[in-house]
Design goal:
This protein is α+β, with helices and mostly antiparallel strands. 31% of the residues lie in helices and 24% in strands.
Length: 682
């Protein structure tokens, strides 16, 4: 993994408001949905920035347990330097440590600080499937003894709660052997356990730090000032080559101390080496290799849903799901199914792919898989018209790669339920119109397609009626089901689904083709009547899916329009710039952002279906297809370093926005890189 090191380019990192590095963030996850994250230069700018956001059993969900560490070093010359959030170090501080370098090694963040002749390295790691963080400091260079001081600061709250949420009414600090426990007054919130290894001195010096500014929250129109509490500080003396690790955890002491610090860190590196060895050969090195580590951040065990975990274990299985994006998304059905191939199959994690599919098969209700699981709740919400259809696609990719026929047979009754419920009619107005065989969706107050922005009662892009990608997915699902039924039960059992597919295809090509424009309507028989002529990327799925519903002679004009109007270096615009509703920037408060979310904003994940469709028109031109991914690798130094954002502004410089790390963005770029591998000759 020696080549999988990303060093930020440019000058020394500095901590002031105009520093471009302030918009660069890092992310470490723990396989449970918990994480640590911050800016590479130190200031906390989001409510989600912290060193330990723990994933806890419902109804708690993800909780902010350790917000920050203020770092102080005293040199042999007696001069003192500070680092960390300005409010924690004190407004009168004049000497600050500035990071000379930030880099990722095997996907994990490393900082190097140089002050005078002293060089200190800092690393952050979350042991896999533990709500624990290790922050390790090592003195690389320097003569004499350097004293390190670490002041932890806390604000126990939901990670999604506003920073203005009041602090606990009281905090309690308890000494347990060589460790320390901080307890707040919130009901059910676990203790925060802290210690340093090797053991260091602790000074009790409690203080409240008020009026901390979170700049990104301010820009996004949310409450932006909050407070933290600190119990005191740890101090350790370091000589050249020595190191100390600060440990904070929401786990019990027996878990925290089950492994030594060195063993825990080595096992994580072993896990990461094994992960890389399992991945597709084309994604084991360079920027694609970095995305293998990024992909790992989204696959998690949803420990909050204790009953589901017990059920899975009782049948000899494991519970797995996919975090749609960091920081605020939970697991979403649509995102999981779209991401599954890139996150698990391209990375060689076939077992986990099977666990994910079987997990979601259990959640099928009325022919639907959940749209999403709300934070801290055990039951999913089902308001989606496409997630269940993407389930067919994900399963087909899995079976093709793994040859796991037993999972197909196990899940097939659920697939039949989904198809039959769509034919009969199910929740949210989802049903087949038997006059033309096309799938209809829509109910007042709901946003059922992937273009799902909603502010209060305003559904920005309702798309009620017969949406183009929903019907492309419906046809694909019918064709897959027909194939599976033929293979397992014989042709007669498959015939009804094959007949529905034939009817849907004929109607699709007759109803969706916009002769005047030369591309596909986005919605036909839309709410209020008529067809929606908006030029959107959704029409690409009529070509890109394994069973394309669109007639071959119409592929070129559709792709020509999509290429000219929607293609950018980082994905596809969600609406043509020619449209009156087009928005070029995704920024501002929530209403402004959601008004632009699917009205021009570029979505990175859409490069996947675009590449699939492009290769169908240009078979064998793998190098040209792979070149379409170059913009994403340039982006790896932006936003979340080493990962890919959710969306980008529609116009240059295509500023990354929204989630700093998005599952389907990473998954589709990884998948397409493997897909465009040059052929190997013996």
């Amino acid at each position: 993994m020696s080549d999988l090191i990303r060093v930020l380019p440019g000058r020394e990192l500095r901590d002031f408001e105009t520093d471009p590095h302030l918009s660069q963030e890092w992310l470490v996850t723990n396989g449970l949905g918990g994480y640590a994250s911050g800016t590479v230069v130190g200031p906390l700018t989001r409510r989600y920035h912290g060193l330990l956001i723990s994933a806890l059993p419902n109804p708690l969900g993800r909780m902010m347990m350790l917000n920050a560490l203020s770092e102080r070093i005293r040199l042999p010359s007696k001069k003192v330097y500070f680092n960390g959030p300005r409010e924690l170090t004190g407004s009168q501080v004049e000497s600050t440590m500035q990071a000379q370098e930030f880099r990722l090694e095997a996907g994990l963040p490393v900082w190097t600080y140089r002050v005078e002749d002293v060089v200190i390295e800092k690393r952050i790691l979350l042991p896999h499937r533990q709500n624990t963080v290790h922050v390790t400091y090592k003195l690389l260079e320097g003569s004499g003894t350097v004293r390190l001081g670490l002041r932890p600061a806390v604000h126990f709250r939901s990670h999604d709660a506003f920073v203005s949420t009041p602090l606990s009414e009281k905090f309690t600090l308890t000494v347990v052997d060589e460790g320390y426990e901080v307890c707040g007054s919130g009901a059910g919130v676990p203790l925060l356990r802290m210690h340093c290894d090797p053991s260091t001195a602790f000074t009790f010096d409690r203080k409240t730090i008020p009026n901390i500014l979170f700049r990104t929250e301010e820009r996004r129109g949310y409450p932006c000032r909050g407070a933290m509490w600190s119990p005191g500080y740890f101090r350790a003396d370091l000589e050249q080559g020595a190191q100390v690790t600060f440990v904070a955890s929401a786990e019990g002491w027996e878990t925290v101390r089950a492994l030594s610090i060195g063993e825990a860190q080595e096992r994580e590196l072993v896990r990461r080496r094994a992960m890389m060895g399992e991945a597709h050969p084309e994604v084991r090195t360079g920027p694609p290799g970095e995305l293998v580590f990024a992909a790992d951040q989204f696959i998690m065990t949803p420990v909050g849903r204790v009953e589901d975990l017990a059920r899975a274990h009782a049948q000899g299985d494991e519970l797995r799901s996919v975090i749609a994006g960091y920081h605020w998304f939970t697991d979403w059905g649509r995102d999981t199914m779209i991401s599954l191939e890139g996150l698990t199959l391209t990375t060689g994690r076939y077992n986990q792919a099977g666990w994910i599919l079987r997990t979601f098969a259990h959640y099928v209700r009325d022919g639907l898989i959940p749209n999403m699981f709300p934070e801290g709740e055990k039951n999913g919400l089902y308001h989606t018209a496409d997630a269940s259809l993407w389930f067919f696609h994900a399963l087909s990719r899995y079976v093709r790669a793994s040859r796991d026929e037993s999972t197909l047979r196990l899940v097939l009754p659920k697939l039949l339920e989904i198809a039959n419920k769509h034919l009969e009619g199910t929740r949210f107005g989802i049903h087949v119109d038997f006059s033309d065989g096309l799938l209809v969706q829509g109910e007042e107050g709901y946003q059922l397609t992937w273009m799902d922005a909603k502010v209060d009662d305003w559904v920005v892009t309702p798309r009620r009626g017969k949406a183009v990608e929903i019907n492309a997915l419906w046809y694909n699902a019918l064709m897959l089901l027909s194939e599976w039924m033929t293979d397992i039960y014989g042709e007669a059992s498959a015939r009804p689904f094959a007949e529905h597919a034939v009817k849907a295809r004929e109607s699709f090509n007759r109803r969706f083709w916009n002769e005047q424009a030369g591309y596909l309507y986005d919605v036909v028989d839309q709410e209020g009547g008529g067809n929606d002529p908006a030029c959107r990327p959704n029409q690409v799925f009529a070509i890109s899916l394994p069973h394309p519903v669109l007639d071959r002679e119409r592929w070129e004009p559709v792709m020509d329009h999509v290429t000219r109007k929607l293609l950018t270096p980082v994905g596809l615009r969600s609406l043509s710039p020619d449209d009156k509703d087009y928005k070029s920037r995704y920024d501002g408060d929530l209403r402004s952002r959601d008004a632009a979310y699917h009205q021009g904003t570029v979505w990175g994940w859409l490069i996947g279906p675009y590449v699939d469709a492009w290769l169908k028109l240009n078979p064998g031109k793998l190098a040209e297809a792979r070149a379409l991914l170059n913009g994403f690798f340039k982006h790896l130094d932006d936003a979340c370093v080493g990962s890919i954002s959710e969306v980008f502004d529609a116009e240059e410089p295509h500023t990354p926005r929204a989630c700093i790390a998005q599952a389907w963005s990473v998954a589709e770029v990884l998948r397409c890189w493997a897909l465009t591998s040059p052929p190997k000759f013996m």
